[in-house]
Each structure stands twice: as structure tokens, then as C-alpha cells.
Design brief:
460 residues; alpha+beta; Nucleotidyltransferase, domain 5; 6-stranded mixed beta sheet; 5-stranded mixed beta sheet
């Protein structure tokens, strides 16, 4: 299919982005606000004024069954529908269930109907494929998809199933030729498009679901080569990133208002015990939030009323379940994390939960709440270099990409482990898509070779 359009998709846990060949677009129409990322490639405007879109889907409860897919909402519109209180089901972090048993399970969307998680992923990719086709002026059947170094930590079989599931979803969305590239490698390709000399670069791609690292040789002499196996010295990653940060922020600074971590009144002859934490952890985990609204969970909480030393904490927790505020609380935690990354101090407003309710949150508190996760991520960065048989001083630069690299304490901790390395910041939400586009151009462009190594082969 020489000359036929192709796309590169960064299907992220929190946000997604899409790149297509700039030559496929009408030169007199600027649909992306002039946001060309590298020569010959263009980011597609996924929503008005935005080259990225939240990886979110909203199903309306009142939609007729035959129009479930046609009428569902995506991205910011999906989040807005939920916040505005429309009846329906919001789903986020779909990427995090790839490789899990949840993928083939169904979830309730209201009015006695349900959809399979697998179909939700395929539908989201189908929406992106439609946007790519509109940008190119023709159906797009060839795609490069980004994938983390590990979908699932320390479980190669589940990790392989996750990639197979994503491939199947892409094929169900209408793509007939599907290739993968590691997300941190894609980020390195974006950096290389501007490189003026050869460097050994540690790519730190820390997004919503995973923290991935790759040690890569980049330089102008290597630019445009499709097979980069000899330039990829090592890969490593951990399944810890932005959604985990959100969960810890919510557990440490929001859910204590509803009794998390509180002591139950002591029975005669016994020491006081901490409240059970299972319900709180489910509330702070995106794909489990909907499970806490079942009549059984509500009845269980009502039976626990006497366990709360503070009646107000019980009333707040009951309100979360009855009024279905779990996603709103998770969104508040995420917003607080983002605000601290931008301004070092914020106030997390919770008036939707209780009038005038709010909590102060600052960078020091974020660092304390996230210290364990940060330590795991820094250890993964160091392990990546160790696996290449090198020391920290061998790294010339660290290339930071992914939404979670906006957290200054995390960047500082990683940088401190590689003191000689220059710190380079890519576009947090779009550099991976741009790099995937570079790889797609090498695969599908006019000078593409007949055979190109897969990401697994490239990993060595």
C-alpha cells in the first residue's frame, strides 16, 4: 500500500495523542493550530484547541441500545458529562486493564445494560481512527501503537496477553496493519529529530499507568533508520505512575475526611483498631470505583456505622456511595496533584461533597505521600543503566516526557541519581506521539524497508 495514509497513536492511560503525515493534510487548512512536531508529521487536533485528549469514555444511561457506540462521549466531553451529573457510566484508565481478567468482563452502564471492557478499548481506538481518517482525507488502515516497556510487572505471560489484547482492539477498530513501538523509544526518536550530536540518553517516560525507561544512543547520523536494535542498550520499567500518585494523594489527604486511617472505638478489653481499608482503596482506584456503589457495599457500610468514632466521617463516606461521588473524588485528587506540580501549593476544593469542604495540599505533602512510589521509579531508572553494563556517569542526558514528569520532586530525585546528565524536557503529553510518528514514517514512508524489527526484537 505505498503512499496510503498511516497513523501513530499514543494510547495513554490518562491522555492520548495522534500523529499523521503532514503531507496527507490539505496545506490550506490548519486543523492542529500549527502544532507540527517534526518535519513531515502533524499532531491531529483531537478536540477543539487540543492536540491531546483524556483517555475517557462516557456512556449515557438513556441512550437506546442500538446507538450506544454512536452516542457515547469521549475525552473532555466525557468528563464534562460526568461532572455535570448526567446519568451514565464514565470509564478512564482503560489501558490499565490490558492483560487483566477484567478485559473480558462487562461493566454496567445503567438501564440494565452493560458493555465489555474490551469493546470500550476498541471503540476508543475506532474514534481515534476516525479522526485520523478525517485529517488524512482517506480511511487509515496502518498504525503504529505505543506500548509501555511492561504492561504488567514481572509477569511475561500477562504482558504478552496485554499486547495481544491491544492488537486485537486495534484490529476491531478497523486497522488492518498494526505495529508497536515502546513509548520511551518513541520519545527518544522525537528527541533525536532535533539532535546535533551523538549522545547516550536515558528516556524517562512517566505517564498515567507506567514509568518506563530506555537507554538509547541518538544522533543525527542515526536519524531515519528503521532498525535501531544496536542503539537500544536496555529497557526497564515499573507499573507505577500518575494514577498511582492520584490514589496515594486521595488516600492520604482526602479520604481521611471520611474515616480512612481512623481508629474504631475500642471494645471492652480490646485495643482500638484501624478502620478496614478495602472500601477506601477501591474508591481510590479508577476501574474499581463503580463496584462500591452496589447495594451490597452500601448495606455493608450501613452495618459499620458504629465503627466510626466521628459520625461526620461516616456520613461523608455514605454520601460518596449513595451520591456516587467516587470519580469526582478521584478527579479532585488528580487536579490537586497537577496543581501542586504547577504551583507547589494548592487547595483541593471538595464543596461538591460537602459545602465549604476543602483540604490544603503542598509539594512537601505530595513528596511524603509519593515517596515510596518515587523510590521505586528511581530504582527502575538506575536498573535500566545497570542492565546496559554502565554506570550513572555514562548517561549524557535524561529526556523527561509524560504527564507525571511535571512533578518537580520526582524529576529532582531522578536527576540526582545521574548528576552528570543534562536534563531535557520534552512535550509532556505529545512527544511520544511525535516519536511514534517518526517510527511510522520509517515503517510506512516512501523509503521504508521491506522488513523492520518489532519492539520485542529491538529490546534485545
Amino acid at each position: 500500500m505505498p503512499g496510503s495514509p498511516y497513523a501513530a497513536i499514543d494510547f495513554g492511560t490518562s491522555n492520548s495523542a495522534l500523529a499523521v503525515p503532514a503531507s496527507a493534510r490539505r496545506p490550506d487548512v490548519d486543523r492542529c493550530g500549527g502544532a507540527a512536531t517534526v518535519a513531515g508529521l502533524q499532531l491531529v487536533e483531537l478536540e477543539p484547541g487540543h492536540p491531546t485528549m483524556p483517555t475517557a469514555v462516557f456512556y449515557r444511561s438513556d441512550t437506546p441500545a442500538e446507538r450506544l457506540e454512536a452516542d457515547r462521549l469521549y475525552g473532555r466531553a466525557a468528563l464534562a458529562a460526568y461532572v455535570e451529573g448526567h446519568d451514565g457510566r464514565l470509564m478512564r484508565s482503560m489501558k490499565s486493564i490490558l492483560g487483566s481478567s477484567l478485559l473480558d468482563q462487562s461493566t454496567d452502564i445503567g438501564a440494565g445494560r452493560s458493555v465489555r471492557y474490551r469493546d470500550v478499548v476498541a471503540g476508543y481506538l475506532r474514534h481515534l481512527r476516525g479522526l485520523a481518517g478525517a485529517a488524512c482525507g482517506a480511511p487509515v488502515e496502518r498504525v503504529v501503537l505505543g506500548r509501555p516497556v511492561y504492561f504488567v510487572d514481572d509477569d511475561p505471560a500477562r504482558d504478552a496477553r496485554a499486547e495481544l489484547a491491544l492488537r486485537g482492539a486495534a484490529q476491531a477498530a478497523g486497522f488492518t496493519e498494526v505495529h508497536f513501538q515502546y513509548e520511551p523509544i518513541a520519545a527518544a526518536l522525537d528527541m533525536e529529530s532535533r539532535a546535533t550530536r551523538e549522545q547516550l540518553v536515558l528516556v524517562a517516560d512517566i505517564g498515567g499507568g507506567t514509568s518506563d525507561f530506555s537507554l538509547v544512543r541518538v544522533g543525527p547520523a542515526r536519524r531515519g533508520q528503521a532498525d535501531r536494535r544496536s542503539d537500544i542498550l536496555s529497557n526497564h520499567g515499573v507499573h507505577v505512575a500518575g494514577t498511582d500518585f492520584d490514589r496515594r494523594v486521595e488516600l492520604a489527604h482526602i479520604l481521611p475526611l471520611a474515616g480512612h486511617g481512623a481508629l474504631r472505638p475500642a471494645a471492652a478489653g480490646e485495643d482500638a483498631r484501624v478502620m478496614p481499608s478495602g472500601l477506601y482503596h477501591d474508591l481510590a482506584t479508577w476501574h474499581l470505583i463503580n463496584t462500591v456503589y452496589s447495594p451490597q457495599r452500601v448495606a455493608e457500610l450501613r452495618s459499620m456505622r458504629m465503627w466510626f468514632a466521628e459520625p461526620r466521617q461516616y456520613q461523608r463516606l455514605l454520601a460518596v456511595l449513595v451520591r456516587r461521588l467516587g470519580h469526582a473524588l478521584a478527579a479532585a485528587a488528580e487536579a490537586g496533584k497537577i496543581a501542586v506540580a504547577e504551583a507547589a501549593r494548592t487547595r483541593i476544593e471538595l464543596s461538591f461533597w460537602e459545602p465549604a469542604l476543602a483540604v490544603d495540599f503542598d509539594e512537601a505533602q505530595a513528596d511524603a505521600a509519593l515517596r515510596y512510589d518515587f523510590e521505586r521509579i528511581v530504582a527502575a531508572a538506575s536498573e535500566t543503566v545497570r542492565r546496559a553494563g554502565l554506570g550513572a556517569d555514562a548517561v549524557d542526558a535524561i529526556y523527561f516526557t509524560g504527564g507525571s514528569t511535571g512533578l518537580a520532586p520526582l524529576v529532582q530525585r531522578i536527576g540526582a541519581a545521574f548528576r552528570r546528565a543534562e536534563r531535557v524536557r520534552g512535550e509532556r503529553f505529545s512527544s511520544v506521539a511525535a516519536g511514534l510518528g517518526v517510527h511510522a514514517r520509517a515503517l510506512f514512508g516512501p523509503s521504508a524497508p521491506a522488513v523492520v524489527a518489532s519492539p520485542r526484537a529491538a529490546a534485545g
